[in-house]
Protein 1
Amino acid sequence: EDKVVQSPLSLVVHEGDTVTLNCSYEVTNFRSLLWYKQEKKAPTFLFMLTSSGIEKKSGRLSSILDKKELFSILNITATQTGDSAVYLCAVAENDYKLSFGAGTTVTVRA
Amino acid sequence: DADVTQTPRNRITKTGKRIMLECSQTKGHDRMYWYRQDPGLGLRLIYYSFDVKDINKGEISDGYSVSRQAQAKFSLSLESAIPNQTALYFCATSDLYGYSYNEQFFGPGTRLTVL
């Protein structure tokens, strides 16, 4: 059974649009939820969320966690072509193991 | 200079061949990981190591073995490669005591094709 489910699997938007990505999870012991951006090859870290309702922001990207409903969202505002990537969500149940979702592929057209 | 490096970056091999993927890191982290990534399945953990003498199986270790030669080096071997081991392989490291303590740092990946 999937522990981490991301939706949608893919989407195509135009520059300037706002994108909302979803990540739902079901784990026994929740420690943190992480978002990564994967362009071409290596995933790069975006955010780590541990507490409900506290938004984390970095430029045009923001993310929030709901530990009661077991999901997180990643928002990208004023999208640019450089935002085109696969966005991965991962949940940590302890201090070393990450369970990854399948990812959401975002394509931003000029 | 990259903190986590992997060699080779691309490899094509034949069924039954032995192959080794290597990972080196300069981050000084004790923890190292090997993942594989397949389309639609996300990243799945093959093996992980807390230090040179502590190596553990992940969720999909069958058909793979690893060696932790030093704190900075962690190798993944396929003793007898098979076509369903065709995938993108990532090495990663982590620091238990960092601010983002669950953050893992990934290498550039090795694309392996088994014919």
Protein 2
Amino acid sequence: AQSVTQLDSHVSVSEGTPVLLRCNYSSSYSPSLFWYVQHPNKGLQLLLKYTSAATLVKGINGFEAEFKKSETSFHLTKPSAHMSDAAEYFCVVSDLYALNFGKGTSLLVTP
Amino acid sequence: GAGVSQTPSNKVTEKGKYVELRCDPISGHTALYWYRQSLGQGPEFLIYFQGTGAADDSGLPNDRFFAVRPEGSVSTLKIQRTERGDSAVYLCASSSGQAVAHEQYFGPGTRLTVT
């Protein structure tokens, strides 16, 4: 079975500083990996996805993630945090069609 | 265009009662998924429909849970003899095809509270 582990349940950054949300995956074959964001009282939104093409994946709102097979990691980064980035972020691995979500990382952005 | 919609947005019911949760997918989307998100957790897969048939219901926790999609569009998740542990946000998603090439679009969810 494929699974992901999000290494931090909460991350706090100051506005304008870099964001790093960490995710490790477990998969018996080449995985398809995603990052989703969930703003309060809003639906889940896809930020980006990796499906065995380029290892550096660019997503919406300035986010990107790098697939590192040797480290079984898929960390999410952004060079400069904005107040509107405050939300819950989920690392996800796909099992053919079903999405397997991590427990989430809550990102707090302070002024 | 319209996204995935779910009704009701909130449902409060008493332990032992029966509830139905509705999902209207994006028009034309053949694949439909139900997930359950408990407090402080990520969503967990419940069931996947391709057209009218349930292609995979392995995530349904027990036989009190059942879902249908009779015409290949709207889906209803049915929970019998509700228990307090069923309290969660139930999410529906749809996609234009199977597998990871097709993005799953999520609805806002139905928050179920069993008292």
Protein 3
Amino acid sequence: EIVLTQSPGTLSLSPGEKATLSCRASQSVYNRFLAWYQQKPGQAPRLLIYGASSRATGIPDRFSGSGSGTDFSLIISRLEPEDFAVYYCQHYSGSPWTFGQGTKVEIK
Amino acid sequence: EVHLVESGGGLIQPGGSQRLSCVASGFIVSGNYLTWVRQAPGKGLEWVSIIYSGGQTSYVDSVKGRFTISRDDSTSTLFLQMHSLRVEDTAIYYCAKGKVGAALDSWGQGTLVAVSS
């Protein structure tokens, strides 16, 4: 089983600032099958990034993903008010799929 | 437009059974993989099970032998049959769909399963 560890647990930033979220895997993620999701309170998760760096349909270009092997990042270039939420990474490179524990991006 | 609508949640006693359903629309069910993901109250996301377009299935270890995923292509419905439910199975259960290599691109709104005496 691939264990995904996200850091930091909480990120306190102001609108307009840049957010950098990290996701480290316990073993290499095959074919960069790594996704990022955003979840707001009371809502289902929403896919942001798949294949480590491809934006999902309708996702603004301020969201970008990078990485390979065991180290991945999600960058939000300039935080908008609607971006304050919890973010999860997930691998889908083989069973069992797993999620990271999440990073909460909160307003400073 | 893609829609996924779950139902079947409720309050169940420990050791009981429940079947969740997820009605899909806007896409061809048999051409995608379908998954169940759960989220315990105040906790993170946990992948539970998947059924691939070819019918192969897989489960997280904690539900193996207790949960069964299936789908009915004629009604575009995904199911999760749950037996021997435990308190720790309490969660919102989401169904979600994706294509190989493309992650979970659409999610339902979730259905709450509460296991308690």
Protein 4
Amino acid sequence: QSALTQPASVSGSPGQSITISCSGSSSDVGGYTYVSWYQQHPGKAPKLMISDVSNRPSGVSNRFSGSKSGNTASLTISGLQAEDEADYYCSSYTSSSTWVFGGGTKLTVL
Amino acid sequence: QVQLVESGGGVVQPGRSLRLSCAASGFTFSGYGMHWVRQAPGKGLEWIAFISYDGSKKWYADSVEGRFTISRDISKNTLYLQMNSLRPEDTAVYFCARHNTGDYSCDYWGQGTLVTVSS
């Protein structure tokens, strides 16, 4: 149950776009569409931003989008805003009937 | 609206036990699977346990298998996590989360409860 691999940090200026990658294996990310992304502000609970690789739950801005290619999923945030500054985690269901999270990516809006 | 409220955290000595609760409201608790996810101080999220809507399936992370037990009481709309043989590395904020049956995501989360394992 190794954690999915995410970059430790990314940054961008307001209005720009950034992409966060999430690398796994054929036993998790590559084997299922059950890939989700969560946003977490300091001291707060995580919030679901993307499910099923690319679906946005009701209420989530369309500036957030998800995709997957092979064993790597990606989260793209366009039109960066100050409020997007947070930690982001990917997650996937696995062939062991468990779930695994990525190590998390700290997004800094410059 | 969906609400999940964890309780039961606190300071406990290594080797001792603790039971966490997660009170659910705003949805039909008996129709959803539930998860426990934890976050050590300054660290990332770690999934630790899942229970199916009817309690028939329980899955655990290797790190807690054999020490932690997830359960639910439909009559009380409450999810539990029984934690035995606690270790210092179990120190974390523990979140409960609702399982989305369609996409296997954690679609709603509680605010978390802090467990500190220390002598």
